[in-house]
Amino acid sequence: MSNSSIQAETISFRIDPALKAALVKMAEQEAKPVGQLLRELVRERLEKKLRREFEADARRQSLEIAAAARDLNSDEAAVMRELDALFDESIREWK
Questions:
Q1: Given 20, 43, 69, 83, which residue has the most CB atoms within 10 angstroms?
Q2: Would the pLDDT of 4 be above 70?
Q3: Residue 69: which residues within 8 A CB-CB, separation 6 or more?
Q4: Cα distance between residue 77 and residue 64, in whole Å
């Protein structure tokens, strides 16, 4: 879906005059309207939050897999042995 077909919504909020002045100055320096700069800042903040959540979930899953791999009879341990063998083979090929 293109941006032109998305219905935009308005948000109103209060902002400290010094912060507004800094925002206006930044928008001028970047040759962008203040609204565009605000949308970019909000988008970047949301993407950063999603990235942190994704990384935390990946870290949690990695720890769970590592714990499961401690059982030498587990599927996880078998996969780790396969990966180790592939890694060792790749190292030998590079030498």
A1: 69
A2: no
A3: 76, 77, 79, 80
A4: 12
> Tokens 């948000």 — which residue?
11
**What's the pLDDT tens digit per position in 26-42?**
999 999 999 999 999 99
pTM confidence score: 0.63
Position 6 confidence tier, pLDDT thresholds 50, 70, 90: confident
- Taking the C-alpha atoms of residue 6 and residue 54, their distance in angstroms, rounded to an integer, is 26
Report helix, strand or coil for 30. coil
Q: How far apart are CA 35 and CA 28, in angstroms?
A: 12
